[in-house]
Amino acid sequence: MTRVISKDGTQIAYDRQGNGPTVVLVGGGLADRSENAPLAVELARTFTVYNYDRRGRGLSGDTLPYAVDRELEDLEALITETGGSVHLYGVSSGGALVLEAAAAGLLVDRIGVYEVPYFVTDEMTAQWQQYVKDLDALLADNRRGDALALFMTLAGTPEEMIASSRGTPEWKASEEIVHTLAYDAACLGDGRPPVDRLAKLTHPALVATGTSLDQYMQQLDPGFFDDAADAIVAAMPQAQREIVPVDSHVADPSVVGCPDPGTLLHSITG
């Protein structure tokens, strides 16, 4: 594990492994770099892989106040550390951050995103905006467990699964970084795909979803991630839409990292 210093002085922790073209892995909500560690191993057979803790997670620092621009500076510092331009791969809200990084003009070649949770209808956008208000209020009162439950409800987790998760080691670990849900919310903006910014991107891009919803997202509309992915592809000039054979929001690394068409490895090798 190594650290790089972001523009505002925040230390950003990362692991580096493998040799070849550089790919940076960007994690999603309630996760540190351990979530992408298995994928990093797969990709390190072909690439130099940088897998980092987004600010406020794992071993990275968390200088306040938060702003999406600070997260972009974190990525910029990491890209500078690599010594050149990079490929970016982002999962869930990390995918939104990847798209914002490309739009901000960071030194990015190809990009891949998986199941970015944008909202495409007025009703869903209204639900998202209410969630953000409620989340901010709960975090301000330090009601971390309630904030976590609120997020899980938004993500489509059944009430009985939320109840049974409380008090588990996984729940306690998520509570420790639950404040970063506000960071993810900021990356997603008003909840809708930022089509005006996406339309200006000329990066070759893979926009992927799985074949079915994660077991913890049973109450989402079955087409939620597909609709969001379709909207991203419709806006981006060089985006490729793919469905990969996985049924989890954290995709099987052996599938995502294989060289078959429609996978991350295939997309970033051209």
Q: What is the fold's blueprint, element by element?
A:
Layout lengths: L1 E4 L5 E7 L4 E5 L10 H7 L4 E5 L15 H15 L3 E6 L1 H11 L4 E7 L7 H19 L3 H11 L4 H7 L3 H8 L4 H8 L6 H4 L6 E5 L14 H12 L3 E5 L9 H4 L7 H5 L2
Parallel strand pairs: 3-4, 3-5, 5-6, 6-7, 7-8
Antiparallel strand pairs: 1-2, 2-4
Describe the structure.
By secondary structure, this protein is of the alpha/beta class. The chain folds into two domains: 196 residues, Alpha/Beta hydrolase fold, catalytic domain (Rossmann fold, 3-Layer(aba) Sandwich); 63 residues, no CATH class. The chain has twelve helices and eight strands. The protein has an eight-stranded mixed β-sheet, sandwiched between helices. Helix 3 crosses helix 8. The relative contact order is 0.15. It comes from Kribbella caucasensis. This is Pimeloyl-ACP methyl ester carboxylesterase. GO terms for molecular function: catalytic activity. InterPro entries: AB_hydrolase_1, AB_hydrolase_fold, Carboxylesterase_BioH.
- Let me know the number of strands: 8
Bulk shape: globular
**Rg over CA atoms:** 17 Å
Q: What is the architecture of the largest domain at the second tier of CATH?
A: 3-Layer(aba) Sandwich
Q: State the domain count.
A: 2
CATH topology of the largest domain: Rossmann fold
Average residue-wise pLDDT: 95
Q: Trace the largest sheet across and list its strands.
A: 1-2-4-3-5-6-7-8
Strand content bin: 15-25%
Would you summarize the structure shown here?
The protein is an alpha/beta fold and 270 residues long. The protein is 41% helix and 16% strand.
